[in-house]
Design brief:
Blueprint: H1 2-18, H2 31-41, H3 44-47, H4 53-81, H5 87-92, H6 95-103, E1 111-112, H7 115-128, E2 135-136, E3 147-148, H8 150-177, H9 189-212, H10 224-234, H11 241-263, H12 274-289, H13 291-294, H14 318-347, H15 353-368, E4 376-377, H16 379-387, H17 394-410, H18 419-429, H19 431-434, H20 439-446, H21 448-464, H22 466-486, E5 490-495, E6 502-504, E7 517-522, H23 531-541, E8 555-559, E9 564-569, E10 588-592, H24 601-608, H25 614-617, E11 622-626, H26 630-636
Parallel strand pairs: 7-10, 9-11, 10-11
Antiparallel strand pairs: 1-4, 2-3, 5-6, 5-7, 8-9
Helix pairs in contact: 4-7, 4-12, 4-16, 4-17, 4-18, 6-15, 6-17, 7-8, 7-14, 8-14, 8-15, 9-10, 9-18, 9-21, 9-22, 11-12, 11-18, 14-15, 20-21, 21-22
Length: about 650
Amino acid sequence: NKDVGHRQSLVTAIKPHVTGPGSSFPVRCSSARARAAVLSFLPILTWLPSYPVRRFLFSDVVSGLSTGVVQLPQGLAYAMLAAVPPVYGLYSSFYPVLLYTFFGTSRHISVGTFAVMSLMIGGVAVREAPDDMFNVLPANASNMSATVDTEARDARRVQVAVMLTTLVGIIQILFGVLRFGFVTIYLTEPLVRGFTTAASLHVFVSQLKYLLGVKTQRFCGVLSIVYSLKAVLWNITSTNVATLILGLVGIVFLYLVKYVNERFKKKLPVPIPGEIIVVMVSTGVSYGLSLSDDYMVDVVGKIPTGLLPPAAPDFSLFPRLITDSFTVAIVGFSMDISLAKTFALKHGYSVDGNQELIALGLCNFISSFFQTFAISCSMSRTLVQESTGGKTQIAGLMASLVVLLVVVAIGFVFQPLPQTALAAIIMVNLLGMFKQFRDIPNLWRTSKIELAIWLVACAASVLLGLDYGLLVAVLFAMLTVIYRTQSPKSSVLGHVPGTGLYYDVDEYEEAAEYEGIKIFHSNSSIYFANSDLYVTSLKEKVILCVCVCVCVIICFEVEDVDSTVSFYIFFLPNSEVVHLKTPNAVHSIVLDWTPVTFIDSVGAKAIKQVPVSKEYAAVGVRVVIAACSSKSSHDFSPTVIIISELCSTRA
């Protein structure tokens, strides 16, 4: 009665705010609702008006400049993974970052190009625009081999990447509007870490040809990593020595810089910008020594100055890219929300998953009209932005302005930049992902099933490609859930004297059974896949002896077609024990339904047959249910009589 009265008073208090005359709960617009909707759609309005300039501005500016210095070379490098010219990596490092400042809910993550996303986009671009589609034979040399029209090929790959990005944005916006932020719960942490580890292997192998300076075809699809590695090894004798030396020097230098930054991060005011140093020095060396002309070192090449005008994507590619866009959209969001929640928890604020979906979708959709490819957030840049004192997305805004400066003013300076230097940057940035192999011994000790998910996600993604690998990993993760519920652990519980605790009598010596009472526990809900196993385990755990029933417990009846079965709601008090006169004779069985969140019709029928089975009916054993939730009770449709105490004298 108290609960009913409380609910009525609560409805009375709330009703004037959400209802209008003549209706129960109509949808009604108001200035407060409109303001809340605007603030939800533009989170920047919640913090910018009260932005503490004196306390935050300097830190955000320093953080933004530091992040921009890192974002610039990564944008150039990750464009190679996306199979598009490097300048498009700069576009992707400017527009989305600028837009996220207005629509994002995280204060610390750094959005922009990301290695895994870039590799997935590059795989789709290569599949839709392979080299052999653009072979051109010389006009008057029929005996010469065909050459690839790289300009036409790159233009087509840009169209594919842009259209894919448009679809990714649309999907993410729709998911956010429909409140589908929960989809990432199917991407468990072991799955994501196994998947990203496999992606890092793909990225590493794809950069070997740039590090060695060999010419090989780019592969995609099933076993692409095997074909790529085979092609590199097959052509390793044609390695460009100058390219290899420059790349190895860059790798060693970047590794040392990362070590110093990590070792002395508390003493350094800002991390040493190793990546931009490698870019500037290698560009200067390449230009001064004419590495491209004299030593045949591959360089970035032409970087147009200024921004491109907006242009509509090629929607004729829609049917061929729709499947890939779902995969890229989900992976991008899962990376974003995992990092956003991590740093939000660290700094004591919350992020909205659905608004993050909308923010990423808008970043991808709007930016795609300016020739960008799909983005997410990067762990390395986020750590830089947070560790250098970034407080808000003003830091992200400053980082985007650094990239803009390069695009509109000094982009031509990076034209002699060797591609091997970008490969070195990419490879060293993979070190954090390779450290995820340490998960294997940890998972072996804690959870074999999660280890299996990690290994399947990694192996499937390596061998089948990232798209099919992710699908296989998700399906396998779902199968593990079915396996866990289909094969639950069952036990007989005993009471720990002096407490209200009940534990497995086989695992805890102090847990003692009540005489004549068996408390059966199974750590799963009861449904069609495990109902027979539940009943079988019950009969195996509970060994019956003939006895006389000495207690009657308040019950409810369930009417079936053939019979009427009596069930009992049984409550075990903390300190009261039911004393029975006949030792070792089981006269009552308690089914502990604490873990049971639901029970379907098949499970209900199986449970109904327990009291009337030959084993129990012949000796008059009572079967009662403890901790029966309202959902489980409704599956039986009983009239439940709740009692708060059941003392031994009444029993």
